[in-house]
Structure formats: structure tokens, C-alpha cells
Design goal:
It comes from Bixa orellana. Belongs to the methyltransferase superfamily. GO terms for molecular function: methyltransferase activity. The chain contains 13 helices and 13 strands. The chain has 433 residues and is α/β, with parallel strands linked by helices. Helix 9 packs across helix 11. The longest helix has 19 residues.
Length: 433
């Protein structure tokens, strides 16, 4: 645990707060979690899918909850957009492309009826030419859980601090190879592919039931599914998939595979890797953080040597170190994590950065953690090429660097949430052992 940050980054943060650009409404704001979280709202939910996993996730189910946003006054605008998309894809058949929106829902993926594994928002619509048709479209702009926003905000600010040309990737002027380990409902990879035009996103999910649930009940694009041979499961998307996803689903590749086996057999060099892989017992598999595992060794080989950035979602332990009794409420958030989580962080830092920097050609690397507001999660970030020299062992300097990049990330990606509220919670720099 480092000393409390000095005034420099705090002044910087206050200055940024007074010059924030006008922001679109964040439909995934935690304020709306009351619509799908908590026992008081269980009476408003209904199960739309239920199946038993053979991959350790127990009973996999999807529950639907009413959503208050977007307001009904905005539906005609979306219906017009769908009609225009249909006309572009099926010229001459515009009369068949009149859509009507039925409403919006939260869809929550659960393991064993208890663990809320993933939450997405979907739009339900039908085509007037086929009154009995029903289409679900996951809302790509909506990240409903704070830890996902933390992963995006801190991860993108970190890779931007590694001299990576993120703006060029966002505008589609260069390819950005991203790996997501753990799929859930698919909101994170869908968000990344929609916001970064140059992103090619590989997604690895070990449980085929979860993949089916995300597509059938959570509106994830079906054209993303890949076969074991590495080809698309669908030879070409149907018209509706093209209307909903053209320009995005071609850059999503969803694999039914074990993460360790996938990374060992894959030849892609990744710019970014996002890991959120908890099983039905809410456990992060040991082989995904064992420093001697084939997984971490191979992941290191598949991470770009100059700017490769790995972002990991971690649950807080029950084995938390006793906090200082005199610590303030704010400072409590910055206290050391439990021993188990600390071991995970150390393993990633040692294998992906420390061993990598033994190569004389390698740049300086960095590892740090961020506590996530409102939920008991931490975001681990390990990146290569953050800077040079020991100055980046100083938390103030790291925070100032991340903050200076975060405003650019917010603007260019057109994020509906503030990166600063997550970056300022950076709690721990992982020093070399």
C-alpha cells in the first residue's frame, strides 16, 4: 500500500471535473440497478431460459426485468433507424422494413439462481411484414455493472499511456486485436467492437450453455459464433442480423473453448486482453493465475511486447486484511486487498511484466489495481511500455498520466460515463519482487 496521493493529481482531477463535456444519458448507470437488483424486485422478474451446465456452472438461467429507459418517446427514432438499415441492405424491398419496438428489458444471467453473472439491456422488436416475428438486440452502448466500466476506463487509459495509437484504432484506421476470456452475456466484447471500429475481438467461453443463453435470450449477435475449425458457424448472416449488426458482428469471434487450450494453440498477438472468468461457485480458476501454469506463460508470448495490456476483474476476498481503525471512509477503499487476490495480482505482474523486462529490448512495464465503486470488485491492470525509469513507481505520476489520457479516451470513444471516477480509485502499484 502506497502513501496517500499528493495534491498534484487531485488538482488535475478537479480541473477536469469543471470542464467535462456534455454527456449523453448513461442507461447503464448504477442508479438503474434498482430495476434488476435486490429482492424487492424479484416479483417483477420472470425466467426466460433455464438449463443445466456440464462445465461447472450449475443451473444457468436468464431472468427478464422491465426497463424504464429509453423512454417511449424515443422509440420512433429507433424504428426509423431500423427501417433505414433494412433499406440499405435490401434495396427495393423497403416496404418490408417497417419495424415496431415492443419495449426494452434487462436480462440477467445467473448461475445456480444466486450469482448474478452478467446483466445486459435488450430491445425487443418485430417487423410489420411478419407480425409474429420477434427480434432481440442487445444494447451495445450499455454497460450495466460498474466493474465493466472500470475495466474499460482504466484499461483504455492505460494502453493509451503506453504510446498505443488508440484514436487510429477507434476510427478504424488500424487493427486492434482484443481477447476477452469469459463471455457471460457478452456486453463487454460487444461494447468494445461497437466503440472501436478497428477492433477484432476474440471471445473465449468454456460453457456452450452460456453462449446459447447470450444469443437466444440476451440478444448477442449469432454470426459471431465460431466452429472448432476456426470458421463461422453460419456461412453468412441473415437479413435481420445484417440490419442489427452489420459492421460489428464481422469483427466478433466467439469460441466455445477452454482458455488455456485456446491461448496455447492460437497465433494471434493481442494488443489487449480482458479476463472475467468466474465459475458457478464464483471461483477464479487456479490455472488462469498460477505463475507456473502454461496459460500465463503462453499469454505472455501472445501479448504485444511494446504496449500489451491485460485487464482482469477480481472479486474481493473474505480474507481481507484488517483495516486501520482511524482510516477515513474514502481511504477505506484504498486498503490492501486480501491475500488471495494479492497472489493473483503478483502472478500476473511477475509473468507478464517482470519476466518480460528481463529482455533487454523490452520497455518498462506496470501493474496496478483499482477498487470498483458500489460492488466488491477490483480491476487489475498489467501493461507493457507504460514509460521508462523508476519514476513510474510513483503513484502520483502514474495517476497523472492515466488522468491525462482518460479525457481523450472519453471523448474519442464517446463514452457515456466518466473514466475519472474509476481511475482516481487506483489503490495499489505492484512493485517488482
Amino acid at each position: 500500500m502506497l502513501p496517500r496521493a499528493g495534491l498534484s493529481w487531485r488538482r488535475h482531477a478537479r480541473r477536469l471535473c469543471t470542464a467535462v463535456r456534455p454527456r449523453i444519458e448513461d442507461e447503464g448507470d448504477w442508479f438503474y440497478s434498482s430495476e434488476w437488483w435486490g429482492s424487492d424486485f424479484e416479483s417483477h422478474s420472470r425466467a426466460v431460459l433455464r438449463s443445466t451446465s456440464e462445465k461447472g456452472n450449475g443451473v444457468v438461467s436468464v431472468f427478464a426485468y422491465p426497463s424504464s429507459r429509453p423512454n417511449e418517446v424515443y422509440w420512433p427514432e429507433t424504428e426509423k433507424w431500423l427501417q433505414q438499415r433494412y433499406a440499405e441492405i435490401k434495396p427495393g424491398y423497403e416496404q418490408n422494413g417497417h419495424f415496431r419496438i415492443l419495449g426494452y428489458q434487462w436480462r440477467v444471467l445467473r448461475f445456480n439462481d444466486n450469482t448474478r453473472q452478467s446483466t445486459v439491456k435488450i430491445m425487443a422488436a418485430y417487423r410489420e411484414a411478419e407480425p409474429h416475428s420477434l427480434y432481440f438486440m442487445q444494447q451495445a452502448h450499455c454497460l450495466a455493472v460498474p466493474y465493466l466500466k472500470s475495466m474499460v476506463a482504466v484499461g483504455m487509459s492505460a494502453i493509451s499511456s503506453c504510446h498505443y495509437e488508440l484514436t487510429a484504432a477507434i476510427h478504424g484506421k488500424k487493427r486492434m486485436h482484443i481477447l476477452c476470456i469469459g463471455h457471460g452475456g457478452g456486453s463487454l466484447p460487444l461494447f468494445l467492437a461497437s466503440k472501436i471500429q478497428g477492433a477484432v475481438v476474440h471471445i473465449v467461453e468454456i460453457d456452450p450453455i452460456v453462449i446459447s443463453a447470450s444469443i437466444q435470450a440476451m440478444g448477442f449477435p449469432a454470426f459471431s459464433v465460431m466452429t472448432q475449425s476456426g470458421k463461422r458457424a453460419l456461412s453468412k448472416p441473415d437479413t435481420i442480423n445484417e440490419v442489427l449488426w452489420k459492421g460489428i458482428h464481422e469483427r466478433l469471434c466467439l469460441y466455445d473453448a477452454d482458455a488455456e487450450k485456446f491461448i496455447l494453440e492460437n497465433n494471434t498477438l493481442y494488443d489487449m486482453v480482458f479476463i472475467d472468468a468466474y465459475d458457478g461457485d464464483d471461483i477464479f480458476p487456479h490455472k488462469l493465475w498460477d505463475p507456473d501454469s502454461p496459460f500465463l506463460k503462453s499469454l505472455s508470448d501472445h501479448l504485444h511486447p511494446d504496449h500489451g495490456t491485460v485487464v482482469v476483474n477480481l472479486h474481493s476476498d473474505s480474507d481481507i486484511l484488517n483495516p486501520m481503525e482511524s482510516a477515513s471512509g474514502f481511504y477505506q477503499h484504498l486498503l490492501p486487498m486480501g491475500k488471495y487476490v494479492s497472489r493473483v495480482c503478483r502472478a500476473y505482474k511477475d509473468v507478464l511484466v517482470n519476466e518480460h523486462t528481463n529482455d533487454a529490448r523490452a520497455g518498462f512495464g506496470l501493474g496496478f489495481t483499482v477498487s470498483v465503486p458500489w460492488v466488491c470488485n477490483s480491476t487489475l491492470v498489467v501493461c507493457r511500455g507504460f514509460g521508462s525509469g523508476g519514476a513510474f513507481d510513483n503513484r502520483d505520476i502514474v495517476l497523472n498520466t492515466l488522468i491525462s489520457k482518460s479525457t481523450q479516451v472519453e471523448h474519442v470513444m464517446n463514452l457515456p460515463f466518466s473514466c475519472l471516477q474509476y481511475i482516481k480509485r487506483a489503490a495499489n502499484l505492484l512493485h517488482n519482487s
